[in-house]
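Progress against Task 2.4 (sequence-to-structure conversion) is shown through the following example record, which the project officer requested during the mid-term review.
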Amino acid sequence: MIPPASLRRLLAGAALALVALPLPAAAQQPPAASSTVTTPHVRAELAALAPQGVAPGRPLTLGLRIEHQPGWHTYWKNPGDSGLPTELAWTLPAGLDPGGIDWPVPHKLRIGSLVNYGYEGTLLLPVPVTVAQDFRPGGALVPGNAATVDIRLHARWLVCSKECIPEEGDFALRLPVQGSTALDAAAFDAARAARPLDVPDAHSTVRVEGDRLAIRVDGLPAAARDRPLEVFPEVAEVIDNDAAHGPRWQQAWEGTVWTGSIHLSPAPAARPETIPLVLKAQDGATAWRTVASVEGGWPAARAAAMPPALAAALAAHAASPRPPAAAPLGAGALLAALAAALLGGLVLNLMPCVLPVLAIKVLGIARHGGDRRAQRIAGLAYTVGVVASFLALGALMLALRAAGAQVGWGFQLQSPAVVAALAALFTLIGLNLAGVFQFGQFAPAGLAGAQARHPAVDALLSGVLAVAVASPCTAPFMGASLGFAIGLPPAQAMAVFGALGLGLALPFLAAALAPASARLLPRPGAWMETFRQVMAFPMFATVAWLVWVLGQQAGIDGAGALLALLVALAAVAWAFALRGRARLVVGTLAVAAFAALAAALGPLLLRPQAPAQAVAQADGDWQPWSAGRVAELTAAGRPVFVDFTAAWCVTCQYNKKTTLSDAALLADLHARNVALLRADWTRADPAITAALRTLGRNGVPVYAVYAPGRAPVVLSEVIAAGDVRAALAGR
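Structure tokens generated for the chain above:
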């Protein structure tokens, strides 16, 4: 039996590749593309208007028509206080160039104190298409057959009522090149009439004056003059959307000049040089669009409330002016942020999801006995593996967020493919520790020799494996550091991720470098074989947890398929541990059976639950979370306690079974009339990701208390009943 370091060369390398596996789709799609996609909440259809056929100089407009179920809505290009705009990705023949969406004027959608901009009922989002002069339809013309062009669209939208459901669909449509396509002409005419009218000759400016944004527009058409106007900025998170439609909205006409004054957003996320504005007559359907230039620049950004661990550093940083782009921290604030990140990584060693791998690491260090040089090399290599893996995960998350993806820490565990791969990885580790097979039986002699000559590689890969297991966990201090890192320039953000990795590796690095630690390490002996076999059971327990996680994502069929595949994988490992001819015959049969099962059951692992099943259901005292529900409850005067959780978050499950199930605490919350909401982030949910971002976090667990008239209070990742009571009491 070889030590576990031998297996880590293969398995930890596989763990590093897990982040490259595909993430789950946000909603189910039809099995084949057609012109129509129907979900429980909307009916979406690809439409086209080509009254003179498809040719250079002739008008061509495509569009997505969305028919909302009663009570449901989708969003404008600026969704307002919450939501996401609809996205259209076209695949068109060469010579057809789609423009942007000609957005109709939105409606105000008020939910409690939140104001969103979007659409209800039937909506058509038109997209003008330019036909190039050298456009030629693909393929040769055949007598008797009319030439056609294939139009394909992948659309994504967020549809909301009391809860929000991200959906998407693939659409296909075939248009005749010479014939007329005008069946939806009336719908396109209505959409054209619903657009705001461009006013290119207007002179428009905005200026920040204290906590307000002063707007001045000179040159609006005569039809707009002396009429009260509503303002819809096309740039999100600039103004207080609620104030833009209430008594705090000040406006006046001075001849041909219209002026308005509106409260700024408490924390403007955008600081553009120009702001396109849609001005809509309050007493009619007509609207006008103008582009206002920003005069005088933007004020310094105001730091949002953060947990106490970084409060001092953020307060000092908020006092200094910041340019429109993300500004670097000063030396003192950066050191405070790095210290908090280091402490968070250190505490991460105590999280239950990391302990099994750390126990194997202790076993590996003990193997070196009194060889201090080998211990130092192993400790340094392990640290390099941990820090490099944290940096790689951090860089990937930052890159995905920069590309527009709504992801946070632990995002890879939202993918059933990653969960299934981790379950297979830990099944193999457990079987190896239990003695079912030895990695050396599969490795060529040259590889085994290389392993003996370069043990530091095994230590480095064990660091990679530790991060693969630790990534879904969030320890105290770690959540604030991760959320803080997102708003920093890339170099400083990566420094925070590196400090988190150094904190995780620090105990083993200290043990490897400190001579006194040699006396504390256990001596090599027969006990190591027994300890090795005992450690197989925490690995199998981890597999059971991962199967449960996948069941939350893909349903009972997905969990059953994963169990069947893990049994087949165990049979393959056992078969190749046989000797002689039995190994060849039984191993071949086992591999064939595993391949057949993977082909038959694999799709069940990746198939998400239907949208109706994915909506969180009431769980005793807890109700499903939505941003609108929080706003409704606080507007009615009720305090709200929100549990941001995920099935793959071990810390979340620990808190759920202990503090959050405490009968005395629940009775106290009920007596205080506190509403309990649970936001389940097991699968990707842009609405939850956005809510976490507003709290300065990008991973779970997060526990937040919303009270009327007060800023949200974020609690520690490992909570006690007293913490919840103190937050509700305002202490």
